[in-house]
Design goal:
Blueprint lengths: L2 E4 L2 E8 L8 E5 L6 H5 L3 H5 L3 E5 L16 H14 L6 E5 L1 H11 L7 E5 L7 H4 L16 H9 L7 H11 L11 H4 L6 E6 L7 H10 L3 E6 L6 H4 L1 H14 L3
Parallel strand pairs: 3-4, 3-5, 5-6, 6-7, 7-8
Antiparallel strand pairs: 1-2, 2-4
Helix pairs in contact: 3-4
Length: 256
């Protein structure tokens, strides 16, 4: 199993061959408290028909061991950018869901990678209410997911660490995230990103209301926004087929 060593631990990742040796690489970053295969699994076969896939588990998640203090997204972005460089993916395509989308934006903002395109699913440019005007509280209790999702999530992580790891480490880490430790960009920052960006978002996202991504789409020079009707923050898990269709259409239109 491939692993990439960082100053705070090791990142586990999967590599899937593309249709040819020169196929571009698509890096897929999952949401907080998930892992690469669970988040992106239903999309992988179709995406692998066109791209070489780099699918890491975020630091401290599932098979990845060790993480920066407070799961600081800027540090995680540096670590994952280093992995992308090591695997020749820094100029490929980049996609992220929720926290993975925040990490992806930080990579682009700090120019640690230079992807040919960026796909953002169920994410935001800032978790600071003073920046976005979003007063919704991001807590597990407010997450509109299927019953038993907490227990299912624990099973993604505890077997690779120890019983109770999810409850003792990941869940408190998620609850403590804020604008400083997660992301707090400005809309003016997004205006400098000269790459195609596809934003896919649930119309009823309970964490990041549509006005956030509408503002992002207006600020980005080359953006397209897709609001999926009647869908919440669990968009990638509940509606993988529409997300896959939108992603592939965008990626193929912006491939040389």
């Amino acid at each position: 199993m491939p692993e990439f060593r960082t100053e705070t631990g090791q990142i586990y990742y999967e590599l899937r061959k593309g249709p040819s040796e020169d196929a571009p690489t698509l890096t897929l970053l999952h949401n907080f408290m998930s892992n690469g295969r669970s988040a992106w699994g239903p999309l992988l076969p179709a995406l692998a028909e066109h791209f070489r896939l780099l699918v890491p588990d975020l630091p401290g998640h599932s098979r990845s061991h060790g993480y920066p203090p407070s799961f600081h997204h800027r540090t995680m972005a540096q670590q994952l950018a280093a992995l992308m460089h090591a695997e020749g993916a820094a100029q490929g395509r980049l996609a992220g869901c929720s926290s993975g989308g925040m990490v992806a934006q930080l990579m682009v903002h700090h120019q640690w990678v230079a992807p040919a395109s960026l796909t953002l699913i169920s994410t935001t440019y800032s978790t600071n209410p003073a920046t976005t005007g979003n007063t919704l509280v991001i807590t597990p209790e407010n997450f509109k997911a299927s019953p038993g999702w907490m227990e299912a999530t624990a099973r993604l992580h505890d077997p690779y660490h120890y019983p109770g790891y999810y409850q003792e480490v990941l869940l408190p880490g998620f609850q403590a995230l804020n604008g400083d430790s997660a992301i707090d960009l400005q809309l003016d920052d997004l205006q400098a990103w000269m790459l195609p960006v596809c934003i896919i978002h649930g119309e009823k996202d309970e964490f990041f209301p549509p006005f956030i991504v509408e503002a992002m789409a207006q600020a980005l020079p080359q953006a397209e926004l897709h609001l999926v009707a009647e869908q919440t923050h669990a968009l990638l898990f509940r509606q993988p087929t529409p997300v896959r269709t939108l992603m592939l259409d965008f990626l193929m239109r912006h491939s040389p």
